C-alpha cells in the first residue's frame, strides 16, 4: 500500500518562517552587503571585498576590546555558575519557603538592563550611594570614574547580582526533576553529600548547565547597557567592551562598512565559542556515561 504524504502542514509554519526571514535573515544579509562596500551616501558606494575585515582584525583598539570582553565573560561565568549551583542546592524544595525564595531570587532578573546600570550607579556614588559611602567610611578610596580596578570589580559584581539568579533557577528546576529513588539509594549506601552531588545531582544538571552557560556567555559577551550607564566605558577605555565599540563605530561615526564587517566578526566569535562550550560539555557528559556503563 502506497503512503500518501500531506504537505499542507508546511503552511502552518510559513508565518513563522516569514517572521524569521524578516527579523533575522534579511537584516543579516544587509549587514553582509555593507561589509564588502565603502558607502558614501545612498547612491554612492564601491566594492571593497575583504578590506574592512582585514582592517578590523588588525585594529589595536578592537583587539584590546576583544581581550577585555573575553576576560569579563570568563570571569562572570567562573563566578556565576558555581554560585548559582550553590544557591540552588540550599533553596527550600517544598512549602511556602520555596515559593518565597523563588520570588526573591527572581527579582533581579525582572529589572531592565539599563535600569540595573542606573541602580548601581547610584549605589556606588560616594555621596548618596550605600556601597560607595560605606567603602569610603572604611578608608578605601573607592572611585569607579578614576580607578579601573574599582570599575571592573563593580561591573563584575553588578553582573553577578543580576544574572546569577538565572543559573540558580535553571539548576533548581534540574534538581527538582531528580527522582527521590536516587536519594533513597544514596542513603542506603551511606553516601556523603559530596558523593551525592558528584554522582547524582551534577550529572542530572548537565543539560540545564549547558543552557545556562550558553545563555550567560552570549549575554555577557554582548553586554552593553549596564557598563555604558555605569561607567560609560571608562575610566579611559578600561571598561569599553565590543558592543560599545561597535555602537560607537556604527552610530557615532557612521562607518557602515567597517562596522558591518566588525559585527559579522563579532557574530562569528560568539557562534564559535558557543559551539566549543557545547561540544566540550556534551563530550564530558558522554565520558561520564561511558564510565558509569
UniProtKB/TrEMBL annotation:
<dbReference type="InterPro" id="IPR000515">
    <property type="entry name" value="MetI-like"/>
</dbReference>
<feature type="transmembrane region" description="Helical">
    <location>
        <begin position="196"/>
        <end position="219"/>
    </location>
</feature>
<feature type="transmembrane region" description="Helical">
    <location>
        <begin position="12"/>
        <end position="36"/>
    </location>
</feature>
<feature type="transmembrane region" description="Helical">
    <location>
        <begin position="260"/>
        <end position="281"/>
    </location>
</feature>
<dbReference type="InterPro" id="IPR052730">
    <property type="entry name" value="Sugar_ABC_transporter"/>
</dbReference>
<feature type="transmembrane region" description="Helical">
    <location>
        <begin position="151"/>
        <end position="175"/>
    </location>
</feature>
<feature type="transmembrane region" description="Helical">
    <location>
        <begin position="70"/>
        <end position="90"/>
    </location>
</feature>
<protein>
    <submittedName>
        <fullName>Carbohydrate ABC transporter membrane protein 1 (CUT1 family)</fullName>
    </submittedName>
</protein>
<feature type="transmembrane region" description="Helical">
    <location>
        <begin position="102"/>
        <end position="123"/>
    </location>
</feature>
<feature type="domain" description="ABC transmembrane type-1">
    <location>
        <begin position="66"/>
        <end position="277"/>
    </location>
</feature>
<dbReference type="GO" id="GO:0005886">
    <property type="term" value="C:plasma membrane"/>
</dbReference>
<dbReference type="GO" id="GO:0055085">
    <property type="term" value="P:transmembrane transport"/>
</dbReference>
<dbReference type="Pfam" id="PF00528">
    <property type="entry name" value="BPD_transp_1"/>
</dbReference>
<keyword id="KW-0813">Transport</keyword>
<comment type="similarity">
    <text>Belongs to the binding-protein-dependent transport system permease family.</text>
</comment>
<dbReference type="InterPro" id="IPR035906">
    <property type="entry name" value="MetI-like_sf"/>
</dbReference>
<keyword id="KW-1133">Transmembrane helix</keyword>
<keyword id="KW-0812">Transmembrane</keyword>
<keyword id="KW-0472">Membrane</keyword>
Amino acid at each position: 500500500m502506497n503512503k500518501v504524504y500531506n504537505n499542507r502542514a508546511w503552511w502552518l509554519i510559513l508565518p513563522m518562517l516569514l517572521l524569521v526571514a524578516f527579523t533575522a535573515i534579511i537584516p543579516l544579509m544587509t549587514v553582509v552587503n555593507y561589509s564588502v562596500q565603502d558607502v558614501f551616501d545612498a547612491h554612492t558606494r564601491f566594492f571593497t571585498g575583504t578590506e574592512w575585515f582585514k582592517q578590523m582584525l588588525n585594529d589595536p583598539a578592537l583587539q584590546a576590546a576583544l581581550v577585555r570582553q573575553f576576560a569579563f565573560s570568563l570571569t562572570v561565568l567562573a563566578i556565576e555558575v558555581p554560585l548559582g549551583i550553590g544557591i540552588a542546592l540550599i533553596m527550600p524544595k517544598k512549602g511556602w519557603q520555596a515559593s518565597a525564595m523563588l520570588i526573591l531570587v527572581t527579582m533581579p532578573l525582572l529589572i531592565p538592563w539599563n535600569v540595573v546600570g542606573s541602580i548601581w550607579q547610584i549605589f556606588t556614588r560616594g555621596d548618596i550611594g550605600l556601597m560607595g559611602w560605606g567603602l569610603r567610611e572604611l578608608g578605601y578610596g573607592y572611585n569607579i570614574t578614576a580607578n579601573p580596578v574599582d570599575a571592573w570589580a563593580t561591573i563584575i559584581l553588578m553582573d553577578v547580582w543580576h544574572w546569577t539568579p538565572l543559573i540558580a533557577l535553571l539548576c533548581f528546576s534540574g534538581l527538582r526533576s531528580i527522582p527521590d529513588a536516587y536519594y533513597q539509594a544514596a542513603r542506603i549506601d551511606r553516601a556523603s553529600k559530596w558523593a551525592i552531588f558528584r554522582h547524582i545531582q551534577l550529572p542530572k544538571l548537565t543539560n540545564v548547565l549547558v543552557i545556562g552557560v550558553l545563555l550567560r556567555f552570549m549575554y555577557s559577551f554582548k553586554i552593553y547597557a549596564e557598563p555604558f550607564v555605569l561607567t560609560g566605558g571608562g575610566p579611559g577605555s578600561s571598561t569599553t567592551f565590543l558592543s560599545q565599540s561597535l555602537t560607537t563605530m556604527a552610530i557615532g561615526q557612521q562607518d557602515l562598512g567597517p562596522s558591518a564587517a566588525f559585527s559579522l566578526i563579532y557574530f562569528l566569535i560568539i557562534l564559535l565559542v558557543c559551539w566549543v562550550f557545547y561540544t566540550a560539555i556534551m563530550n564530558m557528559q558522554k565520558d561520564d556515561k561511558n564510565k558509569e556503563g
